[in-house]
Each structure stands twice: as structure tokens, then as C-alpha cells.
Amino acid sequence: MAAMTSSERPLLNRSLAAFGTTIFAEMSALAVRTGAINLGQGFPDTDGPEEIREAAVRALRDGRGNQYPPGPGVPELRTAISVHQRQRYGLAYDPDTEVLVTAGATEAIAAALLALVEPGDEVVALEPYYDSYAACIAMAGGRRVPVTLRPTEGPGGEAGGRRFQLDLDELRDAVTERTRLILLNTPHNPTGTVLTREELAAVAALAVERDLLVVTDEVYEHLVFDGEHTPIASFPGMRERTVTIGSAGKTFSFTGWKVGWVTATPELVTAVRSAKQFLTYVSAGPFQYAVAEALALPEEYFDGIRDELRAKRDLLSSGLTAAGFEVYRPAGTYFVTTDIRPLGEHDGFAFCRALPERAGVVAIPNAVFYDHREQGAPFVRFAFCKREDVLTEAVSRLKGLAGS
């Protein structure tokens, strides 16, 4: 029987056809080809705490997690997640029925959207957004409705600084009778915005009023440099309608372990697990035991990683300002967003593709995170989760841009 030709029907599912290869793969390959410093993809270039790495080795040697772990995750990790949520935020979750361990936050996002969204449902997402959001909404058959965070004067990452702000009126206008859920991300990638308590209270009130679900990506919860992180599930009426997503990768600098989690009501966890079980079923067995120990590290660890990254943020932000960029100093996350128009540039894609040859540095054009590409065209994202000497060298290389 002859194979169907591509002219008769494309091989790739049409819901994914628009996405292609991720910008991260393209820019990382460009970094390798040119020998440029890669400040594009958000992964650290050093490992996390030695005692946590040794905990994973110990689990491997002891035979814990080398075979299939329990579907919801190992009990030790589910308990540690439950304790974490209760001690930090006053949110009580039953580790047996209200916690689900996933293959990183990316799988948690995918499983939540596949479980909760049906064809034709609208999903309101803050734009710019982490690129997997768009793909997962498409795979679920939903319709993405972006609400754009816009640069504005205000209490951003530094006193009197600029931040990307949520327009609450625009959010309200985006909700229709077809809206199923709001997909939230705070601290926000790529802008570094941390939604304020007042902003979150308004989002919560809207969700309760319109009977909406909320899926909230909070993987940068421990990397807030200015202000504070407040889970939206802690607001009145929100616990029963919120799926909260967390992850170990960013907090503990072990992104390759891919250990994430969901906390929600038993009904919501059951729904997400129903989709998740047909994605990976289970993953990262030995690493789950190590992450359980990581979540119990003393507060000095969390203060230390936050202080270290704050200093790196400031180093890179100051260097980018000196190089001629307009810098939006982030209140959280791994990333600095910049405006390239002061450099006489307007096209982030062209700028980022030329930057490795011009300056030996790789960045990411923010336009890939927008439906409205023109809104993101002049913005470029740099990651600062790298060694200080790497950031210093990158800043040195970028100095010549203003005059080039």
C-alpha cells in the first residue's frame, strides 16, 4: 500500500503546523555555530546544591525510584509539596488527593490544558507568554485570547522604574461566554513582572464573578527580587477553581531533572491526572526523592539563591543600559527584557539573528511570545542565570553596540 504523499495531506497535525521549531533551538544552534555566549535559553550553567545532587545519587544507589514510581508521585515529595504550600502561603493541600507530580512544569501545563479545555473553549493568556502555552491550547482545540502586558511607568523592578503592567479593563473585556479559563503566569516570563496583590485580587474577583477556572504557572515563585509572590489560590473563592503549577528546576538549578507539580482540589487534580497519565505516566523517580529534600532546605538557601540572582540581574541590567538598550529591570525570574529602539533597531528577530556575529552574544526576540507580533517587535530577552564571569564577558562584548 503506497504511503500518502505530503501533497495530499501534511504530515504534521494542523493544530501544530504554525509553531515549527522553537526559537530556543534556533538560537542555541546559532550560539554553538558562532561560539557566542548563550543568554537566550533560561537554564543555569552551574548545578544546584551538592547535598541535593547527592540525595539523588543516594536514591539511585538505594533503588528508590529506579522502577516506576507511583502515578501521583512518590509520597515523600507529595508530602514535601504540601508542607511547602502550607508553611509559605497558608494553603492546605492533602498530599494524597490534592498534589500531583509531573515531568516538569511544561507537562503540568500541557496536562492541565488538555484536561480542562475542549474544542471551541477560549483561554485568556497574558501576552507575551511562555511558548508552550500557545501550543498546548492549540492541541486541546481551544482558542487563545491574548491580553497584552504593556510597558508603563510605575513601581517595577526598581523605584520609579518601568514594568510591564496588566490592564485589568482589557482582561475583563477579553472574557466572553465562551471563556473556560485564565492562564496566569507570575512571576512572569519573559517580562519579569510580578503581579501585585491588587492585580491578583482583581483577577480573582473576575474569575469568581464569571465562574472561570484559573491555571497559574508559578515556577519562579522563589525568584522574586522586589515585592512578593502571592499565589492566586489564596484569594477568596479561588482555591476551588485554581490549578497551581510549581517546579524544582528554577529554584534549585536542576532544570534537567524535570520535576514539577500541580496542587488543586481533588476534582481538579483527578482531571489533570487523567490527561497526564497518557503523556509520561511517571518520570524522574530518583530525582523526586531528592527534590523532597530540597524543599526542606533551610531558609538561608532560598535567601541565598535570590540574593545571588538579584546581583546577576543588576550586573546584566547595568551592562545592557550602558550598551544603549532601554532596560526593564525585572522584579523576578531569570530574564531581563530590553527595548532595542534606542540602538536604532526595530526588528527583534533580525537583531537577535545578527547579534552573535556583531557582539558574540545570543538573546531571544520577545515577538515569538506574542500573538500580536508588532507589539513585541522591539523587545529582546536576555537570561542572567549564568556564572558572573560569563555575564561580565557578555557585558564587555555588548559595549560596542551603541556605536556599531
SSE diagram, text form:
Elements lengths: L22 H12 L2 E2 L11 H13 L12 H15 L9 E4 L1 H13 L5 E6 L3 H9 L3 E6 L1 E4 L8 E4 L2 H7 L4 E7 L11 H14 L2 E5 L24 E6 L1 H4 L7 E4 L2 H11 L8 H10 L4 H24 L3 E3 L6 E5 L8 H12 L1 E2 L1 E2 L7 H4 L2 E5 L4 H11 L6
Characterise this structure:
The protein is an alpha/beta fold and 404 residues long. The protein folds into two domains: 23-48 and 300-403, Aspartate Aminotransferase, domain 1, CATH 3.90.1150.10; 50-294, Aspartate Aminotransferase, domain 2 (3-Layer(aba) Sandwich), CATH 3.40.640. It is 39% helix and 16% strand. The strands form four sheets. A seven-stranded mixed β-sheet has the order 2-10-9-8-7-3-4, with helices on both faces. Strands 11-12-15-14 form a four-stranded antiparallel β-sheet. α3 (75-89) packs parallel to α10 (285-294) and α11 packs parallel to α14 (388-398). The termini are far apart.
Brief rundown of the structure:
By secondary structure, the protein is of the alpha/beta class. Helices cover 39% and strands 16% of the residues. The termini are far apart.
Labels describing this entry:
16% strand; 14 helices; alpha/beta; seven-stranded mixed beta sheet; Aspartate Aminotransferase, domain 1; four-stranded antiparallel beta sheet; 404 residues; Aspartate Aminotransferase, domain 2
